[in-house]
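Hi L., both proteins are below.
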Amino acid sequence: MDWLEPLSQTYPARALILSPTLYLLVNAAHIMAIGVLFGAILSLDLRILGLARMLPLAPTAVYLSRVAATGLGLAMLTGLGLFSVRPGEYAANPAFLAKLALIALGLINILAVHLTPAWRATVRGAEPTKVLRVGAAMSILIWGGAIIAGRWIGFI
């Protein structure tokens, strides 16, 4: 993975490498962003699966989708910073590759769900269909798996 090594020589990567405090802050921001992402996704998926029925699904779905998107953007930005410190090492790490694969699968699941007529009907007030409930269950498993794979990175 020598072609990735120039990334570790960029100014942001060098700053992270040379400043343990900056690295710590970016790492903490990454963890917080993942918490925002997964917290919103889990809350929405559980609501779609029938929990917390006292919450109206339509506005909850719109709001939590936006919160999750914000968390995803921040997690990707901070994750890129962390990756830039040791790109070759991460790119060769099976846990990191599993995490990326699960994130890609999670994004495909989001697109598949959000592009269905069932999703559009749900955000207009309809009850979630079986397709949405299956998508929600898959989402919990996929994003939970991505978090587990992310934690696994440091153990390989």
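That was the first. Here is the second:
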Amino acid sequence: MVKGFPIGVIGMYRAWPIRWRARFPGSTGAMLLAMMLAASAAMAAERPVVLVMGDSLSTAYGIEQETGWVSLLQERLDGHARVVNASISGETSSGGASRLPELLGQHEPDIVLLELGGNDGLRGLPPSQLEANLAGMIEASQTTGAGVLLLGIDIPPNYGPAYRRAFTDVFTRLADNYDTPLVPFLLEGVALVEGMMQDDGIHPTSDAQPIILDNVWPELAPLLKGNGVELAETARE
């Protein structure tokens, strides 16, 4: 009946309701289905890919997954771009740097969001190590043609002003050196605000997630626009 079409297309055609197959019989229906599948695949391929490399701040730690800022980002994009969340709770910059090359090859992202460093700071690791790891990730991403957005983070003041300054300066210096957009502090308007942090004082609540996304959006929007995303249709009302 539909000789000459791949077995997968034939199976999908036969799964159509009888009334559809009656309207588009035999090879005509199979050809229409094949064209629809090809168009769908082409549209998916044209969508820019946004790869998020982060830690627990980007994995919706302690809250429902769909309320996390990365999920809210995918919702706001409304299918105009595909978001791949490769974040892992507890991830350090070293771990992210070791995983990134494979992820770049697998997903071929157009935009890479780097949200790492918080666990380096909480462990008191050398800021120079953080800088080297993030620099390598920026270079690897830019080599593939991807745009990079740095999401900066701060650490509690009890780590001392010198260490804290050296830590936060890493993000500013990298943004300058690699001409990369920067969100200076991902948790602006969230950290130390009542009701915005979970009991551990480290992870934001679900109420804080829209604020985090709004912190990211102004720097992410130009990268999306540069990749053909219609911002007027994706921006939140």
